[in-house]
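Hi R.,

Here's the chain you asked about this morning:
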Amino acid sequence: MQYEQRAYAHVKFLGLMAELYENEFEDFFHRLMCSRYPDFLDVRTAGSLGDMSADGLTLHSRKLYACYAPQTVNPYEIRKKFNKDLAGAIAKRAGQFDTFVFVHNDRRGVHPEVASLLATAESSTPAVGFQQMGARRLWQECMQLDQLAAEDVLRCEIPIKEMTFGIGMEDLEPLLKQLQELRTESDPLMPLPDVPLEKLDFNRIEGADREDLRRGKRQSHLVDAFYAGTMSELEHDEVAEGFRLYYQQVRRDWSEPEDVLWQLKMYVLGNAQPRPKVLRAALVVLAHFFDRCDIFEAPPAGWRPDIGLSA
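And the predicted structure, written out as tokens:
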């Protein structure tokens, strides 16, 4: 899909996350996972058997999914639901799964109660792995659908006409805002690392793009500071995974490094013309994920630009 189509699909996805609860959310989850994974089983209820404590199973990765999408978040109900589903899954589906995935519709991230439950369960049940799947990870699955599959999952037509979007990833808006403020306060004399030249050379990033990433790198420690802390580190990893998946998509569609970087800028900012300070903040974000190797390729060990290899 074109950038504008992905952006339109993201708007529709966020609308669904704000509207779908309980059974309707579970129906959406089933559509998405069936479109993504041939081995996904969309478990339905059956009389007195119910669903045997599983809203979905993947046969190859051996994951069991438990959905929780209430209209009002209640910590007591979250704990009750989680413990009931986990105990039921262990009792009724022993040997059928290795990982328990708690699926929820909270657009803001992982609820503190969910984080505590997952950490406690992982310590007390070492034979089972635990994951959560919220709005970010659901969208990352949507990102990998082709247009027809995305239209079926989102229940809407995705137009081809060009449109303008003023912000790319909604989750990055608070980070961009803080970077704009912190950049004006940072010490310009502080010694800071530079982007590895070998990776810039290996990916054939030159000219203004090269200088943009080098300037951005000198402030990219602020991104680490923004995501400091256990809960924020989980968010950091999810945002990084979104960058990695989006990079893989645009890398298939665009061969020139400058075009790939242009697409990644739109992923952060949208395709509207940003204010200069917003663009500078976005370049800090891109330099950060470039340095982490979530976007663009790391050169192989021992690679040098003078030995005739190219990306």
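Residues 230-253 form the longest helix (24 residues).

Let me know if you need anything else.
M.
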